[in-house]
Amino acid sequence: MNKCCNPDHPHCTYWVMPGESTCAGGHAQPVAEAEGGSFDLLNTMRSARSGPPAAPASPANGYLAPARVYPQLHISGFDPRAAGGRQSLKMELRGMPQDCGSALSIRLRSELIPHGAQQQQFIRSVHGDWRPVFVEFSSRGKEHGQYQIHAEIVSKDDEAQRQWECTFVILVPRVDASLNEIHRTFLSTHKNVRVTADDAAIARVSAQGGNTMDIDVTARNAGIAHLDLGAPPGKVDVGYSTIAWDEDLIEIEQPRSCPSHPHPTLAASFINAAPENGACRHIRLFAMEEVSFGRFELADPEADVLLHHFSAEGPDSAGLTRRLSGRHAVIRRTRNGFEIEDVSRYGLLLDGVWPGKNKPVALRTGMKIEMSASIKGIVLLEVSAVMPHGVILHRIDEGARAECFVLLAADTHPGYPLPRHNALPKASSLPLLMHHQGGFWHIDQLTGKETALAPTPKQEKLSRVPAHTRFASDPYPEHWIVRSGAAHLPPAEATA
Fold it and tell me: Using an 8 Å Cβ cutoff, are 386 and 363 in contact?
């Protein structure tokens, strides 16, 4: 009578009666049971989960059912002894379906990663395998303990999108932790086979194949431990100077593909030809993971949102506008919301306080943002709404009637029911917008109807959009701006 040898259930402890094809737990067993002595604690053949699919059941391969292929993310190079220092994790894809795209994007989210998130790409080689990617982080100043790292891998093509996810845990030890304590913690959480021989006992481990088998063998007090991998000719790694492991990738069901947006763009605007009751003439729309604010320049500007100083006579391209940096501030989306960071020479004030350069601060409704910490009144903005999928900023200086800004997360649907959020009255009067499938959409908050926005001559009546308002596919349609050598003329609908 032997123990369960099913490769998909390595931790099963049920016994298999002689002649039975399944164990007491119902797990299928090899047709030809392997010979083993009373000292065999483990004698199983785990199929290589990253290899090709198994052949149909037959006595030749010894299994009653084909093994399932599991895509995995192999993580290596982690050394918890480097507490408080820079770390580099190497990530490799294994067992991915052959019909996925030739380039896969991976997005990592964790408190350890700078700015909370990082995105890279896996590129397929001519031989079909995937070039590894590296992620760097530092645990300096972090409290010791366990930190989650969430990985999302996306494959996009012209017809559909597929997505895989996994979450793994990184141990940040105490600075004074011993190497023995660190490895004991890792072994207790990552090794799926532990063999110990104490007091003159004998432990014999015989294992064949299985790229995901992590074995911890210990012999103490005159014990004998014998490890026989039985691997085919090739490289066998028995010990590692750093820690490595595999994480199963779970494919997430994607909604049915919808037709693409008729007018894809990442920046646009609403132009109100006859603003009334304090409404803004221009609602400037941006859809990016990171939006930069800076000085208005007609030729090759450095920022996405271009800011003028407004006086009582109107916009002033010279004068105090020149005291704004080309890239003055950055607003980016994080896992916990949206944050702003000062990247300028002249500084900025948040509610009258300088946060410090390159120190992100979370945005909240009602926050006052003043561009320039040394000269008052150049540009003054107010956060009028912080939504799950975007931020709305209104000017509260002389340019209040001229423009406001809606910053949306790119290709993000807010979902239904529409999430509640705190907003000032001037933001509540604006239409509810989102960026999805590459373009901007209007959402009717009463009916939930979604309307794609495009610069067409005639548009249907949209809720909270004034009658004399038109949509332009440029955030600054009233100017002729040259970006990276390409001139953008004002659209006809903006100058009509």
Answer: yes
**pLDDT tens readout for residues 155-178:** 876 556 789 999 988 888 877 777
Whether residue 67 contacts residue 168, with contact meaning beta carbons closer than 8 Å, is answered with no
| Concatenated DSSP letters of 204-240 | EEEEE--TT--EEEEE-TT-EEEEE--PPSS------
CB-based contact 328:316 (threshold 8 Å): no
User: What is the rounded CA–CA span in Å between residue 438 and residue 452?
Assistant: 10
DSSP state of 260: P
Q: Considering only CA atoms, which of 402, 411, 405 is closest in space to residue 393?
A: 405
> What are the backbone angles phi and psi of residue 187, rounded to the nearest 5°?
-65, -35
Beta bridge partners of 309: 316
Q: Which residues of the chain have pLDDT under 70?
A: 1, 31-69, 80-84, 157-160, 179-180, 182-218, 220-242, 255-259, 417, 457-460, 484-496
Residue count of the chain:
496
Q: Which residues of 38-47 are buried (b: 16+ CB within 10 A; e: fewer)?
A: eebbbbbbbb
3-state helix, strand, coil in the chain (%, to 5): 5, 40, 55
Sign, CA dihedral 36-209-9-190, equals positive
Q: Could you tell me whether strands 329-334 and 290-295 are parallel, antiparallel, or unpaired per DSSP bridges?
A: antiparallel
CB-count exposure of residue 6 (10 Å: 0-12, 13-18, 19+): buried
Instruction: Show the domains of the chain with their CATH numbers.
Output: 72-252 (2.60.40.10), 267-495 (2.60.200.20)
Dist CA 329 CA 381 (whole Å)? 12
- pTM of the full structure: 0.51
Mind spelling out the 3-state secondary structure of 320-373? HHHHCCCCCEEEEEECCEEEEEECCCCCEEECCECCCECCCEECCCCCEEEECC
Q: Give the 3-state secondary structure of 5-73.
A: CCCCCCCCCCEECCCCCECCCCCECCCCCCCCCCCEEEEEECCCCCCCCCCCCECCCCECCCCCCCCEE
Residue 496 has a pLDDT of 42
Contact 218, 196 (CB under 8 A): yes
**Per-residue pLDDT tens for 428-455?**
999 999 998 889 999 988 888 889 999 8
Tally Cβ neighbours within 10 Å of residue 165.
16
